Fold each of these.
Amino acid sequence: MTKARFDVDPWTVSISDVRPESLAHEESVFGLSNGHLGWRGNLDEGDPRGVAGSYLNGVFEEHPMPYAEDAYGYPEVGQSVINVQNGQIIRMLVDDEPFDIETGELSSHDRRLDLRDGTLHRSFEWTSPTGRRVRVESTRVVSLSRRAIAAVRYSVEAVEHAVDITVISELLANEPVPVEHDDPRVQDLLTRPLVTVETDAVGSRATLLHRTRRSGLAVATTMDHEVDAPGYRLVTEAEDDGARTTIRARLDPGERLVIVKYVGHDFEESRASATVRARAETAVTAAMADGWDRLLAEQREVLDDYWRCADVIVEGEPRLQQAVRYALFQVFQSAARAELRSVPGKGLTGAGYEGHTFWDFEAFVLPVLTSTAPDAARQALLWRHSTLPHARDRAAQLHLAGAAFAWRTIDGRESSGYWPASTAAFHINADIAAAVLHYVRATGDVEFEREYGLEILVETARLWVSLGRRDADGTFHIDGVTGPDEYSAIANDNVFTNLMAQLNLRAAADAARRHPERCEDLGVGADEIDEWTATAAAMHIPFDADLGIHPQSAGYTQLERWDFDATGIDQYLLHDHFPYFDLYRKQVLKQADLVLAMHFAHEAFTPEQKIRNFEYYEALTVRDSSLSAAPQAVIAAEVHQLELAYDYLAEVATIDLDDAHGNTHEGLHVAALAGVWTVIVAGFGGMRDTADGLRFAPRLPPRLTRLGFGIRVHGETLRLDVSASETTYRYSGDEPLKLLHFDQAITVGTDEVTAQTPSPPVPRSRPQQPRHRAPRSAFETDGS
Amino acid sequence: MTKARFDVDPWTVSISDVRPESLAHEESVFGLSNGHLGWRGNLDEGDPRGVAGSYLNGVFEEHPMPYAEDAYGYPEVGQSVINVQNGQIIRMLVDDEPFDIETGELSSHDRRLDLRDGTLHRSFEWTSPTGRRVRVESTRVVSLSRRAIAAVRYSVEAVEHAVDITVISELLANEPVPVEHDDPRVQDLLTRPLVTVETDAVGSRATLLHRTRRSGLAVATTMDHEVDAPGYRLVTEAEDDGARTTIRARLDPGERLVIVKYVGHDFEESRASATVRARAETAVTAAMADGWDRLLAEQREVLDDYWRCADVIVEGEPRLQQAVRYALFQVFQSAARAELRSVPGKGLTGAGYEGHTFWDFEAFVLPVLTSTAPDAARQALLWRHSTLPHARDRAAQLHLAGAAFAWRTIDGRESSGYWPASTAAFHINADIAAAVLHYVRATGDVEFEREYGLEILVETARLWVSLGRRDADGTFHIDGVTGPDEYSAIANDNVFTNLMAQLNLRAAADAARRHPERCEDLGVGADEIDEWTATAAAMHIPFDADLGIHPQSAGYTQLERWDFDATGIDQYLLHDHFPYFDLYRKQVLKQADLVLAMHFAHEAFTPEQKIRNFEYYEALTVRDSSLSAAPQAVIAAEVHQLELAYDYLAEVATIDLDDAHGNTHEGLHVAALAGVWTVIVAGFGGMRDTADGLRFAPRLPPRLTRLGFGIRVHGETLRLDVSASETTYRYSGDEPLKLLHFDQAITVGTDEVTAQTPSPPVPRSRPQQPRHRAPRSAFETDGS
């Protein structure tokens, strides 16, 4: 692990150099979003840049899906996120010399993301090629309180000499983006995705209204400006793909030109809409009326409220303290105001994975939101619920009952192009059902369960019944499916899938029994509920008695073992160097599968099985997926491999800050970032969700002296403060909360409760990973 | 089964109506080819037409292969057969009224394919819209003796009135063909695939020289004309994409205009070549010098020689007599002069499957050629040998030893776009090895074995050793592969694959021991030979002892059975209505797999196993592949289900003549046509190839009174004449031939030998097929 890229600080992420080749990474790290609107951290002036990025959640273009050999049930229409009109751009000229970080002399340049303020600051001092010096500060906010609004305060101060300052504030559509598709049909549609409908410029305000060519969306962006400067002139112009407000002023030394740019984005699922334009303009008008200070105050208020519960305290490793807050900030940003839209794998920080959402949102991100921002979790589940018509259609196409949710999608329609790792990965349906179950347990949101959650549970339960089959002995099997591990596919009785399906069936039966009045609407009778219960009970969970472990899927332990010793360090990632054919037929895991099952379906395994399973799969897991380290850490912690868990945590925590996978420029790994919290809370905190309440088993890894974290439980905050020897529980609710501390039942009421940490078991030796694939000790070279 | 489309005759296939909507089918049926050059049976005048088709074996265009989600090892370049310059076209005008079957009055129109002459005849009498009547005859030949040459004799006779006759004979490049690709990159390359290099017109001769845009081929076509008519005038012109010779004459009633058009085609793997043009012109010059009658005589000579051995006599069903000769004619045509080029799945009769060759050439077609046209078989194996460099590259890409031959290709490079049904179908390598083994056994061609065959056997044996693995008990397994059945994929220990690999390993070891001097060149030592033998001996062949049958692959009999009763007749073909996901995980077969293994590896099964296996898989096989009925028939015959075998034979025999699959317009099903011979010879004749020679077990199905067929054995002809009670064997060789008649050893010397048919066993009930998928009794409604 190399030195940290960013300055280590508990509440900020900052950097004081700027190089064109690093911008793409930093733009993702400095991405601001509210879940509805996302701006990558592009420099104000737009150039140089890594990847321009301004996204509205739900704005995408459709395109044909190409297949060398087509077949029944293959999705025909793909979806790709596109840039909306870019409202970030503020260019500056000093005596008509355009500012650029690569010309003139940049005597300082600092960028700082503030995790409490929710703002991105930038300050620099620049001397133009002709020797004129200015001091610039900009502050950018993507509002968490007003979902359509982003704003920038941009201030230029003349230093030493009087100068003519020109600031050009722009909206820009159809900017060039990196070529991603080698299919020219797709490339055509995505290169200039926006068609101009109308543009408008009045005073300091301009609006661009565009439409997408195939997906039928109307997309509007408005900007307006407050200007404070001596004797400035201002003019606004608009043309088809751009609008600009030009502000000129002459500044004496010490004088400033200050501009606040308000940008409002909105869209609508209709090609030509007057209302979408009106909404963007109204949002800007309102924001401007309330003003910049109010925007900042609202932002701080939302985040203060968030951190009050969600904050995690780490003592013993400053980089981890920073990383966990950064991770939580980005997880929150990705979903806070998504409101009936999907949360993409990269959030709104990049166009990676085409802006699609995957199972890891429900499996990795939603548990964090449920525990820290339950309103956002509710909204995300409502989005899945809204896609039920598509999921029912997909199930029908596959000749299955109920609903089959999309493996990858923006709007709910299946958009995956390789069925063995998508259509066959039916576990996503149980992952969604589990997210419903955990949300309802954590919040007590009975209204949600009755009106929305139950329908998801029912339709997914129906899917499982139709997908599996009873054998002659009455045992229930689910054949030919793909579990979480993408180096395996199309296997029978995947343990993760079967356990999650079992959980899904039981959750559906329980919820149905709680809401008999809704069952009638959904056509659920007592027989069907009994069938779910019986199917769950009959579920086959393969076990290899010889090895004393669970095979990932039936027969898995009989497969040939991957030849790790013959695999060079330069042959990772394996899928870049070996065909699926060979990966699938051998024992080698891209990511935790059975190990993840031991977290999500923790009650299905004995402690001894967890130890044996973990050791077995550690030796086979190459962690070529960013989704792997966190689940490995959670179970490592459970089986008392605390140092190993800590090494995995360090790896996950630095994934984006240090660009550990080399692809952060495509956007943040939101699910991996969520994993940072999960390792702390479910790993070192030992939190498990059961029908009878929460259980904790907090143990610190040797390098940490203290951990503190908070969980929302039924709308109140449960906070744990963990030291090596004891844990203190505090709960903000009026009703006392019953929970388990290890095997000890405790009740946390108005007074805090402190409980001792039991002695650890006799340590076992550290499990071995495949050659070249042991986790690095992430913080070693830069410990505080 | 409906009435036969074509007139039933033992040696011709003819039809006396002509309708635009039927042309596409008839063009394939009337396709003429010599394996190097193929002309679909388009009408002389080119319009109307179903699909224009003029193919040179090896002339194709390359194009990008599109993938919605790309991965390691996916082929990047696809290949598609394209039309070369069309030399078929002869348009006629009567008093300047263009002849067209859809205008004027066609009082007769007959087309006749003659299977002994190797010619396509056409005659019609037409009255123009202005009342002028002509009688036209055309005869078309694609020369089996001169691979570059096709020719047409076109004769027009004035009836009743004097008329001005204009005949326009053309060469035409880049004719419109049906849109096949929805990827516009591919479509672009294939829409106008030929770029003009040069054109030339002198006297009655014209030449077009084109090149392909990406694949880098130079393609030349020359035409020249002999004309016989009173006072005719002739002019020839050429432009970029066409050339035409216009011949005008005034004919009194009873006078004729007779034109013989000679067309020479050639190509070369070089973009601009003078020699390719010279070769096309020289071929025409030579053909013209020898003349039309000589061309016809040569054609008849080649075919007489072919039929002398190959002819099959059927008594009892005239439609079958015609069909088997038609099938043999087309199989012969597809490969006769292919000479170091692949033989496409459709021969040169259509652009279906993009002109690719597949495993079924070696598995289905080559055995027929080996027994009837061994020189063509040798050439085809030499082609595979020539692709060894590509096959070694592919093996290396897959991290395997030896050679992995292309699943689908024109020039030897892998061009398949769906790996579970291509890359994973490694059995093609053993199918090729088996074809080598059978060719050498049948011909005694030791020089071929030493110089070429051994290298194929060695490289494929190496592949198997690296592809499989030994388990702890030393048993050899081949995991994660796909057998012949395309409704299953990625399974362990596919019995067909393992048995064929075993045969491959043994054949390699035997051949290597026979040619120690070549082993040194190939780096084969005694240890490696021993390893092949040991690996073959250790090969795992799964067997389900409970059911007493072989599972298609390990665990197959434990899979869920397809719900045939719930599957409607309109849901076939299943792959058009169900996802691979569901087909793969259930017991349902598209085509014979284990049943095919019982033919190709017949010594690995006891008679009792054959009966039980056949009955088991009959109930699961839906025959959605044209490759299925013939192997089912062969084993049906072996297990004494002669009526069932006959029904399958009827189905195969009429596949193209009756357009039974509705896709004959894309080209003939050459492997299925080969299956007609295979059912007669290996099914009713019971022929099996063993290390100790041939075995026969001839039994007639109840509807036939006699069968006769011939086999090339070591360059000589063995003919069988089978009646219900006995079989007479005749052999043309000087050395007596030892063989088995049932279990009776007989020796056929200069005198014929007649042997009795043993009494049949007690009949078992007819096996059941899935609902809606029993074979139709093909000849029922049209028995003679």
Note: Chain B has two domains: 12-301, 329-671.
Amino acid sequence: MNDTPNAELLEFFDSPTEAPFVIEHVHDEFTSVCPKTGHPDFGTVTVRYVPRAVCVELKSLKLYFQDFRNRGIFYEAVTNQVRDDLARTMSPAWLQVVTEWKGRGGFRSRIIATHGEVPAQWLKG
Amino acid sequence: MNDTPNAELLEFFDSPTEAPFVIEHVHDEFTSVCPKTGHPDFGTVTVRYVPRAVCVELKSLKLYFQDFRNRGIFYEAVTNQVRDDLARTMSPAWLQVVTEWKGRGGFRSRIIATHGEVPAQWLKG
Amino acid sequence: MNDTPNAELLEFFDSPTEAPFVIEHVHDEFTSVCPKTGHPDFGTVTVRYVPRAVCVELKSLKLYFQDFRNRGIFYEAVTNQVRDDLARTMSPAWLQVVTEWKGRGGFRSRIIATHGEVPAQWLKG
Amino acid sequence: MNDTPNAELLEFFDSPTEAPFVIEHVHDEFTSVCPKTGHPDFGTVTVRYVPRAVCVELKSLKLYFQDFRNRGIFYEAVTNQVRDDLARTMSPAWLQVVTEWKGRGGFRSRIIATHGEVPAQWLKG
Amino acid sequence: MNDTPNAELLEFFDSPTEAPFVIEHVHDEFTSVCPKTGHPDFGTVTVRYVPRAVCVELKSLKLYFQDFRNRGIFYEAVTNQVRDDLARTMSPAWLQVVTEWKGRGGFRSRIIATHGEVPAQWLKG
Amino acid sequence: MNDTPNAELLEFFDSPTEAPFVIEHVHDEFTSVCPKTGHPDFGTVTVRYVPRAVCVELKSLKLYFQDFRNRGIFYEAVTNQVRDDLARTMSPAWLQVVTEWKGRGGFRSRIIATHGEVPAQWLKG
Amino acid sequence: MNDTPNAELLEFFDSPTEAPFVIEHVHDEFTSVCPKTGHPDFGTVTVRYVPRAVCVELKSLKLYFQDFRNRGIFYEAVTNQVRDDLARTMSPAWLQVVTEWKGRGGFRSRIIATHGEVPAQWLKG
Amino acid sequence: MNDTPNAELLEFFDSPTEAPFVIEHVHDEFTSVCPKTGHPDFGTVTVRYVPRAVCVELKSLKLYFQDFRNRGIFYEAVTNQVRDDLARTMSPAWLQVVTEWKGRGGFRSRIIATHGEVPAQWLKG
Amino acid sequence: MNDTPNAELLEFFDSPTEAPFVIEHVHDEFTSVCPKTGHPDFGTVTVRYVPRAVCVELKSLKLYFQDFRNRGIFYEAVTNQVRDDLARTMSPAWLQVVTEWKGRGGFRSRIIATHGEVPAQWLKG
Amino acid sequence: MNDTPNAELLEFFDSPTEAPFVIEHVHDEFTSVCPKTGHPDFGTVTVRYVPRAVCVELKSLKLYFQDFRNRGIFYEAVTNQVRDDLARTMSPAWLQVVTEWKGRGGFRSRIIATHGEVPAQWLKG
């Protein structure tokens, strides 16, 4: 079991405008494996960003997330890994990754990792 | 297939007051066609604005949205196109266009494009 | 058909305190008539204010709203008219009128008109 | 019928810490009598505060609220009375009283009365 | 009956990144005993924090919360105790503990205790 | 004020099939006037039927319902009148009229009037 | 304290039709007093019936329910008393009284008392 | 504009078992055109059946539904057409088609068409 | 750890009427201990019955349920034990015990145990 | 890829009573792989049964469901396979397996497979 997903699966297209705008993709079919217990984890991953030059292509983002399916990786590491991979590959003006996890032993968890300054549009809308 | 909707369908009426106020129209019957797969996309389009001199007439806005029905156009482009068409034709003090799209391959998406400064009324109410 | 409702129906009582406080009344039985189609419109009208000296009496507010029942008047005009009538007759420190309208042709609409500066209590609570 | 509830019913205990923190109690079984119609009113009363030295004991707060049961008192007066009684008897760093009332003649109402400056913790949480 | 839970049950692991991020754990199976009536209390405990160097291990947090099961301790004390134990043992950059309690005698209660300054990410996201 | 709505507004079209099937129309913009108090009533009217030869045309049903707008008529009478008018004019195999009324003095009401035997399809689905 | 409400408050009007139909009134502002603890109880009372000759007048039903306000009477007795009073005074073809009570000590309760045979319309609709 | 969809788009696969079982597919992206007004209609189509020998392949069902996109056809005709096409092409032991339509002029509509006897499993589960 | 709760805690009062009626108590604060893992279980217990001569007193039912708090007992055994204890001690005409358990390892569970024939009132209402 | 899950993972324990009762387990973390597209499917599997002599042990049921994680198998086959495996290994008096699948291409699906006669307790409760 190898906990490094394949960021090379990600593909990008040019942003349709130079005016800043906000994109949000919510994926509620995320699953990985707990490295400690070997049991699967299930969660929702939300990606919000303001593109600088490129946008992430949705199908490639899906394949990138599917690549976590049989990897052993903790909640906190998934969240920071996705933030790092997307920040490095598309250099957004702002990026926020939120993961929300199904209940384990009476707990629900949520992790939030951010890159760059939150855009005025997001705050104000 | 031609991805340019007809902005000439839009009609306007004089704002009933010079005092600034906020108008929001939510249209949950938007459909266009994905240029990549040829399959239809379905979504909700929300238009929020502070009129400067004119307001958009609701029936003409409906016809303008219906004009996207058989056009091939991506989520991001729909959102920026509506923002640009409305900003150009009615010169609002503020305008925000939000599109929310039904699930595709385990993803829900939302795009937010803005024109002008958000009004204090919207922030404070 | 005459689109001017009767603001003389409104009655007031002295505010029970000099300390500023916020009052909100939500009326979900508003109906008027569309001047263009002649069909009835249905909506919810919310009035929020900080009284300066007087409060609006609830039953008189109901009669004032019922007076719109058979008048031909657009969404935007209803909202600004209620704001103007209440601002003029009770001189509140702050007043906000929000109208929310049932769906027409796939659209739901909301209009927000304000008078005066929003009170710190409303923002902070 | 006497509209002055008995604030002497309220009892207090020492705050368990000197560090500021926020307490919220929501009571959804409040009833009093409309002084105009003689019909009962039903509502929810929410008390939020930052204690300075003492906290209000929950059972005594319940008895204090039950003492309104057969009193004739308007919505606005209930809200300001509770704010005044609690502000005077426990000197909180911040206090907010919110009352929400069941529908009467197509209206739902909400009244908000505050004492002191809102704490940063409440804003930021 | 002894109202001091065992903070030594808590275990920690190194944060996977030096970049600040937010972690939230919601535990909806908390129970303790009311010291006054001897009846059990039931609630939800939410822990939100920005780690400085370590994160709390989820299973140890569960055992720590289970250790309250038969202790006699008031709502306000539970909240401040959890805040103090976690602040002392993991020195987070920010920590917020929120407890929400099931209805007692027509009341629902919520207590919020905080340590440190709220992070910009939490406010802005 | 005259409480007899105009059933001649109703129009019909031929059923598209001879096989029995169920049609349900829910109209949530019904309003009439209480003959006792003169205040407006607001409700939802649901019509369910199995056509024998004809179906009611939706726009004509809307005009028929709008014709109640300023008539003075009680809940129970509205329900039986709609049942009688539709049963007489379209001779359905089964017809059920359900009216649901907004709150008055702490009450919500529902009235159900039926014509003919309930179809197996409705029961079994 | 006397637990016998005043059934003479009830008034009736002639049923508008001889064809059987179902009437349901839901009253969510019921309150009485627990004879054991002296604390108020709060609940919702639903009355469903098929009239034989008369219907209960809604305002008189409200006054009859308000008459329980300061009486000491248990949940089970309220339900059976309302069933008995309405069955005796209006001789319905069918009558069902359902009471639903707010939480007490972690319990919610519901009591159902019936008179006569359930009508086919109710079952089939 | 031609209102006959293309049933030849439908494809089938062998049922995985001879034991009867129930399949339900809910498609909430149905759109066709109103033949009277030329405006698009939007709805949800639910297909429930017990296969006799074959099951409908999901992607082919999607293409069949997409084929209605630009056809002019009424609610009632859509429902009966789908029932007839599926009954003829896969000879199910039981089939039920339910269409639910977005609001038009204050109305929501639902149409139910059935083929064959409802299976005991559906009733009993 | 002893898995036999104390049925002697249960107390009863005479039914207020000889006419059959249905009583339902829902307790959402049930907790016991898993005999296998030693971890606490949390659930809701619903008791529905038609009394023959006596009703269970609500406070005694609460104490009886609290007596499970530290006992090691499985879901299925809790449900059958409550059914047996209540059937033996109050000889109801009908009794149904439903337990619903919070998630464990991705599962939610519900157990239903019954005594006697279901009353027509329950089925028909 | 092999579509036969391992039924030998299932373990059983003796039913705690000879009186028939109903058990329901809802697992909302089911995932398998679509044999056609290779993409993962996500769903909820509900198992309801009346034990004859043994009950399925919950942890073993979880491992059995996890064994589908990387198998290529269609919705309909999953449902019938689970029904067959559980019917064969525990010989229940009644068994029902319901699978509900997340949206694919605008469709949500549900499959219901049953073994034996539905128990009166399930129908009547």
Note: The first helix of chain F runs from residue 58 to 66.
